[in-house]
From TrEMBL:
Family designation: Belongs to the PAL/histidase family.
UniProtKB keywords: Cytoplasm, Histidine metabolism, Lyase
Descriptive protein name: Histidine ammonia-lyase
Modified-residue entries (2,3-didehydroalanine (Ser)), positions: S143
GO function terms (MF aspect): histidine ammonia-lyase activity
Record location of the 5-imidazolinone (Ala-Gly) cross-link: A142-G144
GO annotation, biological process: L-histidine catabolic process to glutamate and formamide; L-histidine catabolic process to glutamate and formate
E.C. number(s) listed in UniProt: 4.3.1.3
Origin organism lineage: Bacteria, Bacillati, Bacillota, Bacilli, Bacillales
Post-translational modification as stated in the protein's UniProt record: Contains an active site 4-methylidene-imidazol-5-one (MIO), which is formed autocatalytically by cyclization and dehydration of residues Ala-Ser-Gly.
Subcellular locations according to the entry: Cytoplasm
Lineage: superkingdom: Bacteria
Reaction(s) catalysed by this chain's protein: L-histidine = trans-urocanate + NH4(+)
């Protein structure tokens, strides 16, 4: 199966399929034609010796400095080399792959003025899984993700490092191995590769995929907790949620009832208590609000995935061609969205930690052993797992500070407001990893708690989940190194993020 790109119709689901099924990409004929037309405009600019930013001039504060005609191509190479100053650990291979796909899709809109050779080089790297090594830090998120995308561009021209067959090697080595010629950058092409938001957007796409999955995973984990605490199902009745109108809340309530259908551990109001604490009773409202966030973020990401966001932009309309310097590289819309995503993720972890606290606290857990210890006093049981979860949610609260409210001027104040969107994307992913581990802790504790209540009384769907998780983590019969269990369950949850399973 091949993912066909045309600059207009790329979706997160298509990216998910690419990552999960190892698809190749191809380009439509009409997209190739747009690339050729925009390139012809660049050639005319060069032929007519026009003064156009980034083609015949320098960059940033040097935008008024005219470059000699014979040095247009060298200007682009110098740009890539000088801007490749990323710092820190590299983005994951998935993020770097998505970054290439997104940059390719942008170029196919026909507003960037690149050559067909550049397009074909990107396709070759994607389809052969030659993945640039791209440091995560160093982008301000305006004027594009300049540093990260420069490392991407370096790989295309045979410089820098790449992952090939999961080994980090020199790009030139891989190209020689595959008998592939490094790309020779032409006028405008270096700038066209790095002026854009593909680093923050690519990491944002991965964030969205994994955050949405955490939202779904949180429901069946919460359903186990609900049964361990003999929770009341009345609060999930559709009438309650329809009168509030939020679709996501209605959907969560319906899914919770589906997970709990057939359980002999749930109760009705008045059986044991009149109403549950908020962390059980308000799952549709709390989780549903996170799904509202995710839906907002998805829309903004898919806009950007199909946007022309470099500078300058080339237009060919009504037999007239013109070039405009603008600011579509500014990451503010995506920065806001990715900061918002952090809030949705943070709350899933917050409420999970409060639920698992109810499971281990003998004052709240409806008769379960304190900390679910097999020998209270001699053995601590799940006591410190709750500490670990509390630490993670507290860390998330610090990471949730919006990166997008910060700005530092750059390029001698020519670029005097920036988005910091890539920081938002990176912090968001840290929060997702933390949230997944909190949910893993709740799952481990809920599995143990339902054993005290009789697993045969579980709903059929959660019983299946119980059986699947018991292959990953055993029952707690004595104290052990629980960090191994937490990591094993977290990995189980991550492994399902791209599989279209709930």
């Amino acid at each position: 199966m091949t993912l066909q790109l045309n600059g207009e119709s790329l979706t997160i689901n298509k990216i998910k399929e690419l990552l999960y099924q190892s698809d190749e990409v191809s380009v439509t004929d009409d997209a190739y034609q747009r690339v050729k037309q925009s390139r012809a405009t660049v050639e005319k600019i060069i032929e007519n010796k026009e003064t156009i930013y980034g083609i015949t001039t320098g960059f940033g504060l040097f935008s008024d400095v005219r470059v000699d005609e014979g040095e247009y191509n060298q200007l682009q190479v110098n740009l890539i080399r000088s801007h490749a100053c990323g710092i820190g650990k590299p983005f994951s291979q998935d993020v770097a792959l998505v970054m290439m796909v997104l940059r390719l899709n942008t170029l196919l809109k026909g507003h960037s003025g690149v050559t067909v050779d550049l397009v074909d080089q990107l396709i070759y790297f994607i389809n052969n899984r030659i993945i640039p090594v791209i440091p995560q830090q160093g982008s301000l998120g305006a004027s594009g993700d300049l540093a990260p995308l420069s490392h991407l561009a370096l790989a295309l021209i045979g410089e820098g490092s790449v992952y090939y067959k999961n080994e980090e090697v020199d790009s030139r080595y891989v190209l020689n191995l595959l008998n592939r010629t490094p790309l020779r950058l032409q006028a405008k092409e270096g700038l066209a590769l790095i002026n854009g938001t593909q680093a923050m957007t690519a990491q944002g796409v991965i964030n969205y995929i994994e955050a949405e999955d955490i939202g779904y995973q949180a429901e069946w984990i919460a359903a186990l907790t609900h049964q361990a605490l003999n929770g009341i199902t009345d609060a999930y009745h559709e009438n309650v949620h329809k009168v509030r109108h939020f679709k996501e809340q209605i959907d969560v309530a319906a899914r919770m009832l589906d997970w709990l259908e057939g359980s002999k551990l749930t109760t009705s109001q008045g059986d044991i208590r009149v109403q549950d604490a908020y962390t059980l009773r308000c799952i549709p409202q709390i989780h549903g609000a996170s799904f509202q966030v995710f839906n907002y973020v998805k829309e903004k990401l898919e806009f950007e995935m199909n946007a022309a966001n470099d500078n300058p932009l080339i237009f060919d309309e009504d037999d007239e061609t013109f070039v405009i310097s603008g600011g579509n590289f500014h990451g503010q819309p995506i920065a806001f969205a990715l900061d918002f995503l952090k809030l949705g993720v943070s709350e899933l972890a917050n409420v999970s930690e409060r639920r698992l606290e109810r499971l281990v606290n003998p004052q709240l857990n409806n008769g379960l052993p304190a900390f679910l210890s097999p020998q209270p006093g001699l053995q601590s049981g799940a006591m410190i797992m709750q500490y670990a979860a509390a630490s993670l949610v507290s860390e998330n609260k610090t990471l949730a500070h919006p990166a997008s409210v910060d700005s530092i001027p750059s390029s001698a104040n020519q670029e005097d407001h920036v988005s910091m969107g890539t920081i938002a994307s990176r912090h968001g992913y840290q929060m997702i990893e933390n949230a997944r581990r909190v949910l893993a802790i709740e799952a481990i504790i809920a599995l143990q708690a339902v054993e005290y209540k009789d697993i045969e009384k579980l709903s059929p769907k959660t019983y299946d989940k119980y059986q699947a998780l018991r292959k990953v983590v055993p029952s707690i019969t004595q104290d052990r190194q629980f960090h191994k269990d937490i990591e094993a369950v977290a990995q189980y949850l991550l492994d399902h993020a791209y599989s279209n399973e709930i």
